[in-house]
């Protein structure tokens, strides 16, 4: 953690007589200050040395408290700049509706944006052939992006499409589905698989979280109304910012059973 200096924080006093470890007391004090609005999003914390001096505790204790809050998503460390209060954003995403990231954010009143990581075309790999049901020698277009909401990194999206559907990946600047709609390949349904993963260093750096942070990995295969597969996308969604919600209905029996008959 950077040792930048900063103004003294107004935090609850720590009590060495309290059986709760000092690092946990410090975590609770910072979280309480965030909840009450005393610490605003993007506010910088004092440096490790300054905070330890202010509270009369060791730098090791401060470091342990800060590390735990970074892992919980309360704080974010920007290497070379310091430690800051994280933007507290959490989104619910229904699993029963197919929509684009751009439309999802617009419906929530948020501004969506994308950082283009790479675009390419070429022969489909073995995995891409299987994912899209293509034949050997078929070509694909690849669009890899970092998706943001109000400037906050939320997901890494890696989309692969048959070249007949998207011959030029540079056409995708914001919404992939808007481009597909214009070309007559708008998805009408999709199959999704998801499971929990831990982010590697590169993925974590892009999403602004520590390495080994939890995330949701989602694979989506999208089809047109005629059943043509037009998209295979693999995505990594921040585990501290997304909740995926599924609405379930109870299956009713064909007829009620009466034990008295």
Automatic annotation (TrEMBL):
InterPro entries, alphabetized: Bact_HTH_transcr_reg (IPR050679), Chorismate_lyase_/UTRA_dom_sf (IPR028978), Tscrpt_reg_HTH_GntR (IPR000524), UTRA (IPR011663), WH-like_DNA-bd_sf (IPR036388), WH_DNA-bd_sf (IPR036390)
Keywords: DNA-binding, Transcription, Transcription regulation
Domain HTH gntR-type: 20-88
UniProt key word rRNA processing: no
CDD domains in UniProt: WHTH_GntR (cd07377)
SMART domains linked: HTH_GNTR (SM00345), UTRA (SM00866)
Name of protein: GntR family transcriptional regulator
Source species of the chain: Microvirga arabica
